[in-house]
Structure formats: C-alpha cells, structure tokens
Amino acid sequence: MSQLRIFSYLPNPRIWKATIAARLCGVTIDVRGAAPGTLQDWLWDFDAHPLSEAERQDPALQRSGRTGFKSRLYKTPAFLEAHPFGTVPAAFSPDGAVGIFESNSIMRAVARLGADAYPLYGHDAYMAARVDSFLDVSLVFARDSQIYLLSLRDAVTPEIHARTRDAFVTYIAGIEQALMPARQFLVGDGITLADICFVAELSLFANEKPRAKALAGQGLAPILHDGLDADYPRAMAYYARLCAHPAFAPDVGPYLDKIAKAAAEHTSPRESGEREGPAARSAVGG
C-alpha cells in the first residue's frame, strides 16, 4: 500500500519534488494522471480514473476549468473537500481523507514520512527553517515562471518576459551566492528539499527552449541563454550534477531529452511552422 497518492497532469516536474524525495527516503508513492489535454476526460478524485459515460453526464460532477484548463472538468465533492482550491497536483493520505495541495507541501509530506530514513529537512530546527527559506523563495520565481510558460503557448508580451527575466536572475543569482565558495548543496552537507525544489523548478522552466523562434519573432531573447554557464558557473554545474544523481535522473533525464528534441525541431531549417511538442504542453496546469 502506498503512503501517499498523487493525481496530476503528466509529465509534471513539480511532482518530481515528491518522487525524488521518495526515492531518497524510501517512501512509497502512487502517481496517477495523464497528459494535460486529457485530464478533462478524467474524474478528479482520490480514485482518479478516466470518465465513464455516466459520470460525464452527471451534473453534480461538472466544474468550470480555470488556469491551464479551459474546458469543463469533472470533480467529485470529496475531491473538493480534500482540495478546496480544486487544483493539481493533488495528494492524498492513504485513506483519501486528507488532501495535500501545492507541490512544496506535498514534498514536505514525503520528507516527514521518511524522516527516519533520510534527513531531507536537515538535522535541526535551524536547518529546517533554512530549507524552508529556499522553498519560499522558489514560490516567488514559480509564480512568474508559470505565467510566462503559459503565455508562450499564445502570445507572450514584453512585460511578462521582462518580469520573468528579472525573477529568474534574482533566483539564480541567489542560488549562485548560496553555493559560494565551493558548497556542494544549498543547506548542510547532503541533499535536502531545497536542492530538489531547485532542480524541479529549473527543469520546468526549460520549457522555454522550444519556443526560441517564437520569442525571436517578437524581438525577445531566451531567458535560458547560452551564457548561463559562464554567468552562474556554480549554480549551473550544481544543477547538472544533481540531474545526473540516481534519485533525480529517472525523472529529469527523459524530460530534458524531450525538451532538447523539441527545441531542435523548432530551430531546424526544415521546420516549416510552429509545433507544440509534449515538453511544451507540460507547462499547463497548477
């Protein structure tokens, strides 16, 4: 029996926060979901599953879609009781009675469940509070990055681009500073939730890469530009090192490979028009 169930659109780098943590501390997780464009055909519930025809016709289950989901969605009253904001990713206790929402909180739940096996929250209250500091800062960047990635699917504005660029610079510069002079991790001497969260958020932001042509068409430069390794050598080397770690690689590797392939297709001279690949679509949702 799993210790935590998660329902989400897939793939979703923000649920890696939980899956990576689970690998490190031995917590068993059950992940359910499908591509963003197909979640409108699922019943949102602890027992989430593709809709039956009877469920599709039940007016008590029908809800209006919000950010990232424009069509009608189907959510049980029990789902909304557990998740009052009605978003995904949505996590549940094994009996479905307790809902946990927001990816950082879901990750924290995994860390607490596996605290005896691996100290992902540090060894004392001060280290835990420092971890929380990095997680809170990530929320500021995550808000701007979500708006930006969604706008890239339609028409990004110079204002959104500038705000996100500034948020990214603030975020990555802080990570660079935290790793000085030669730290291997953000907090303490081992992997914590702070490291996991950084990798997940930067990987999600990589969805900008397949949209370089669209940005150029509006006179905008990619925020993830080729000079990042020179500008932020510690942060980028640390990111690459963690991406290759056995607890991270099963999630991060295939996802970044898809993004790289989509980016190559969008920049190929043979490309006759814009296509939105699976990596770009993964930005949809909460």
UniProtKB/TrEMBL annotation:
GO MF annotation, one: transferase activity
Domain annotation GST N-terminal: ranges: 2-118
UniProt region (Disordered), positions on chain: 263-286
Keywords carried by this UniProt record: Transferase
PROSITE patterns for the chain: GST_CTER, GST_NTER
An annotated GO BP: translational elongation
Domain GST C-terminal: start-end pairs: 124-270
Keyword Transferase: yes
InterPro entries recorded: EF-GSTs (IPR050802), Glutathione-S-Trfase_C-like (IPR010987), Glutathione-S-Trfase_C_sf (IPR036282), Glutathione_S-Trfase_N (IPR004045)
Residue ranges with Basic and acidic residues bias: 263-278
A Gene Ontology term for the protein's cellular component: cytoplasm
Cross-referenced Pfam families: GST_C_2
UniProt protein name: Glutathione S-transferase
Organism of this sequence: Vineibacter terrae
